[in-house]
Amino acid sequence: MIAADRKLLDAFLKPYRVADGKGFRLAKHDPGDTHGLRSEHKGQAAQLLARGIEWLAEAQEKLYAQDRWGVLLVFQAMDAAGKDSTIKHVMSGVNPQGVHVTSFKAPSSEELDHDFLWRCMKALPERGRIGIFNRSYYEEVLVVRVHREILARQKLPPSLVGRKLWKERCEDIASVERYLARNGYLILKFFLNVSRDEQKKRFLERLDEPEKHWKFEPNDVRERTHWDAYMEAYEDAIRRTAAPHAPWYVVPADAKWFTRLVVAAAIVAGMDRLDLAFPAVDAAVRAEFAECRRLLAGEGGTSRRA
Ligand code: ATP
Ligand code: MG
Asked: Domains along the chain?
């Protein structure tokens, strides 16, 4: 990407990127922000998104061919913030062989018999691939923090469950992310920041429209009563785990077209910083090309098997 485009992209992302959590305040982030763009700009936004998607498709081919870097994209959000549809749209151009999405639900009994990172570490992408976590180990300092009864089921030795547990978990997460970054992983974390009012609107739509009934989960409505506790948990987690090598993007999520644009832009900006290129074929192999060309030419016309 040329330097001027790079600058524009960084300026666009600046309000949403949190690479140092010190002093981070979630209340300063407006879920309805659209960077001054209005709904009449939706068409232009869609065009930009399409360009981003195309760029990502090419970058992913190089990522795969080069086989050096891995990309981990973490998505966290309240229900109905649009995680699934954002992932679907932003990744729509990339080769499915190079991307793997893992959705993390309440842990199974086998998972509870291990440390909390175990199931996520098993799902990490290989080098050359993009791994998407639809929810992640961050649930361990979000839902588990809000619902203490979940912690009680985690079979931890009681002597290890103290007042500093959430701080310690965030430290462990930050350490693992630093370790992964040092091993060649680009880590980008997205909090899709939907407002409580917009969530209510989306739940009502799910109730009103029969084709959306399948998406409606009665328990999600009960979860809303814990909204403030979730926001505090998110704020604390972001504060403690944002880092230049594993930044958070707090993405306004009340307008879906804008959410997609920010997420795509952040992935483009992140991958642009990797030195992605198709690997050069070395001279010895290239020397064989001429011989292969001669052999192919010597075969004469192409024949097809019946
Ligand atoms: P959607 O509702 O769009 O299908 P979702 O991510 O909300 O997507 P669900 O199956 O509805 O998927 O919910 C998964 C649930 O699992 C969430 O409520 C989440 O908080 C919970 N969960 C995820 N990880 C953990 C964990 N480590 N411990 C306990 N609960 C967890
Ligand atoms: Mg859900």
From this structure: 6-280 (3.40.50.300)
